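Pipeline run #58 for the internal structure catalog. This entry was flagged by the ingest filter as a single-chain record with no existing model, so it goes straight to prediction. Upstream metadata was stripped on purpose; only the residue string is passed forward. Reviewer on rotation: M.T. Logging verbosity set to normal.
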Amino acid sequence: MATHEIPLSRPDITELEEQMVLQTLRSGRLSIGPMVEQFEKLVAARAGCRHGVAVNSGTSGLHLALSALGIGPGDEVITTPFSFIASSNCILFVGATPKFVDICPTTLNMDPAKIQAAIGPKTRAILAVETFGNPAYMDQYAAIAARNEVPLIEDCCEALGCVYKGRPAGHFGRVGVFGFYPNKQITTGEGGMIVTDDHRLAEMCRSLRNQGRPLGHIAPSATNASGSWLKHERLGYNYRLPELNAALGVGQMRRLDEILEKRMRVAEHYVRRLAGHPHLALPTIDADTVMSWFVFIVRLSPSYTGEERDRVIAGLRRQEIGTNDYFPCIHLQPFYREQFGLGPGMYPIAESVSQRTLALPFYSSLTAREIDHVCQALEVMIKQENLSPRG
């Protein structure tokens, strides 16, 4: 049995990453340098895309993608209510309106049939999230987007390294966005990456991330005395990824396959340990999917309430086991309810799933003994709930 805290997540950092960061620190080039360029090429290649544009977060990447596509006030973007809130907030950043559709109860991604039914005259894009890194239906979303002549924005922030029907995550949409927060498959501390085959779109994102400087702009140097550094052609943002963060990302990308293999082993151990539990639903993965495993999410059976799920989480935390609810529905967040008049009952599948999901500790160095301890504690807490009087 584990005798120490088991956190919800932990980055996989080795001496290689430390050396890359130290090398960059000693170079004196801490912004707009070779590490960012190298990191962009590595991630874009993994996504099978021609262009990568590094930014300071996945949220920034989604914001720039929407901006570069010209989406703004009066437009609607179809998206999921079951996601981290950033996937909808970025739609508000450009003045557009998120139009939610309910999810599939097995994959937890948007129901393709409901997307088609939701498309209207104001629809300007589909922003599809690969929930928990699961790319199910991405090909169908792309087909729906093409049929209706709107771009598909692929929120693949949780899916780096995943492959669906032979295509890598990030390669299904007109543009895709990865995130590199410390709980992701790889991390840059904070950071994100826009990937696309569209040269013009990539150049626009590069301008927007860099205070709206001209397309094709390069930083001034001893050999480049151009005054374009203080020329701004459009409203832009300071969304650049620093060289130190990019150096960490380069080291992580060089080890990506190693990291993914370790995460796969952790997920497989969880599946073996919890398979067949009468009160749990484990992640549902399509046979055409090679998962890269962002998190490991389980669901209590439909008879459980949100309050009971929360008591299970509290019990695990008392034993120093990192656990969390993933995800509260976006349309039930206070701001969205007040701003758009949204409320319970509008997206019943997402709401039912949301009140029963919990994330278990998941990271590449998690040991078999620790996984067994987590599973044993989870089983005890579920049994305790079954013995407690309900409602």
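catalog note: The longest helix spans residues 368-387.
catalog note: The chain has a mean pLDDT of 95.
status: ready for reviewer M.T.
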